[in-house]
Design brief:
- With about 425 residues, the protein is mostly beta strands.
- The chain is about 10% helix and about 40% strand.
- The strands form 8 sheets. Strands 22, 23, 25, 27, 28, 29 and 31 form a 7-stranded mixed beta sheet that branches. Strands 9-13-18-15-16 form a 5-stranded mixed beta sheet, with no helix packed on it. A 5-stranded mixed beta sheet has the order 24-33-32-26-30.
- The longest helix has 17 residues.
- The structure holds CU-O-CU linkage and copper (II) ion.
- Keywords: Copper, Membrane, Metal-binding, Oxidoreductase, Transmembrane, Transmembrane helix.
- This is Multicopper oxidase family protein.
Length: about 425
């Protein structure tokens, strides 16, 4: 399966090159000369080793734990992460979800590197210059691998922080919410930043109770002038992150996935039936920086029958085709690209483009009126149309897919290439 994807990808690149586009090293040539250590970005200042293995309880773990170790760095660090695979027969890679790395660090097997097989290793290196909340996960058999536990937090903190700054990854195994490690107790008046991370394949609803809070950032990008809100629920799409800031009004105990105190407290679920904060109308607006688009694509998400295997099965399709048969979308460096994403199916598709953040223009015909919203993960609900745009400023071959990982596995995955 992986091999066939690789050959089809190589064929696409040949096609693109043959069609008179400027040639660039395609994944196949990069594949042959796959570097063990990435391009020199300077001496690493933070080194980590993540070893994937099957834990005693059957989970797939990095360094024996689920979630894997939190990789915490500071803006300006050069990160070096050595990935080793002890015994995961499906192979392992590291994808830095939401962190816009150079393409050869993106961790997509068959596209930017080979999967690391048992006994193998791969060294990732990149500069941490995008402050924010991210996560990492395997992209090899990612449907199974992430569900079994091969994921963890990546947080890039600014050089100075005040107060308490904690990450709160939420993931379900079966229907048990996995707790993150205990952090401690904070005094009243302490500024708190909670980094909420949805590592699941479905939407999670959060409630911050007992006091006002702000949503300071979404998907690793600060919002402009977010006002305090209270009694609002937050809906995090699969893969999405919200940074919530608040001042602890009473003794606040930060423990596991929940922040316990008389008030405020955070719970992932169940939550009161409060109105959901709409990020498209939150924060100070500023005009869309582009008046025209160099290229526009439409992605129609639907369901179809896949007749290629021995038995027919349902596929999740984009423009009537399923991976690996969805044509690659080709852009040129510097272009402003618009995507119109139409969900004609009956289920939610959390969309995720690698290597870029997209600016939300409109959702279901309603223009975004809040702070410019730069996302890497967003829920396209049944019947909805989203219009988003981005600058093609990160050359390479990028995955563009539904982050409900079983959907991606069942066809809802395509690629963006630079000519
Ligand atoms: Cu979070 Cu293509 O992945
Ligand atoms: Cu989907």
């Amino acid at each position: 399966r992986q091999f066939s994807r690789l050959t089809s990808m190589a064929a696409v690149v040949a096609l693109v090159a043959g069609a008179g586009f400027a040639t660039r090293p395609g994944p196949s040539s990069r594949h042959e000369h796959a570097p063990l250590v990435a391009a020199n970005v300077g001496e690493p200042t933070k080194r980590f080793t993540l070893t994937a293995s099957i834990a005693r309880d059957g989970a797939w773990a990095f360094n024996g734990q689920v979630p894997g170790p939190e990789l915490a760095v500071t803006v300006g660090d050069v990160l070096e992460v050595t990935l080793r695979n002890k015994d995961i027969s499906r192979g392992v890679t590291l994808h830095w979800h939401g962190y816009d790395v150079p393409n050869d660090q993106d961790g997509v097997p068959g596209v930017t590197q080979d999967a690391v097989m048992p006994g193998g290793e791969f060294v990732y290196r990149f500069r941490a210059d995008q402050a924010g909340t991210y996560w990492y996960h395997t992209h090899s058999a990612s449907d199974i691998g992430v569900r079994k536990g091969l994921y963890g937090v990546l947080v890039v903190r600014p050089t100075s922080i005040t107060g308490v700054d904690v990450t709160v990854p939420v993931h379900t195994l079966g229907n048990v919410l996995l707790p993150s490690p205990t952090v401690g107790t904070v005094a009243p008046g302490t500024p708190v930043r909670l980094r909420l991370i949805n590592t699941d394949s479905t939407t999670h609803r959060y409630a911050v109770t007992g006091g006002p809070f702000r949503v300071a950032a979404i998907d690793g990008r600060d919002l402009d002038d977010p006002s305090p809100v209270r009694d609002k629920a937050l809906l995090l799409p699969a893969g999405g992150r919200y940074d919530v800031t608040l001042v602890a009004p009473a003794a606040l105990h930060v423990d596991g996935r929940a922040v316990w105190s008389s008030s405020p407290s955070l719970s992932a679920s169940p939550s009161p039936s409060w109105p959901v904060l709409d990020p498209l109308s939150y924060g100070a607006p500023s005009p869309v920086p582009w008046s025209r688009f160099d290229r526009s694509f439409t992605l129609v998400l639907d369901r179809g029958l896949d007749l290629r295997g021995l038995l027919p099965r349902y596929a999740h399709t984009v423009n009537g085709a399923a991976d690996p048969d969805i044509p690659v979308q080709v852009v040129r460096r510097g272009e402003v690209v618009r995507f119109t994403i139409v969900n004609r199916s009956l289920v939610v598709h959390p969309w995720h483009l690698h290597g870029h953040h997209v600016l939300v223009l409109s959702r279901d015909g309603k223009a975004a009126t809040g702070s410019p919203l730069w996302l890497d993960s967003f829920d396209v609900l049944p019947g909805e149309v989203w219009e988003v745009a981005f600058v093609a400023d990160n050359p390479g071959m990028w995955a563009n897919h539904c982050h409900n990982l079983p959907h991606a596995d069942a066809g809802m995955m395509l690629h963006l290439a630079y000519a």
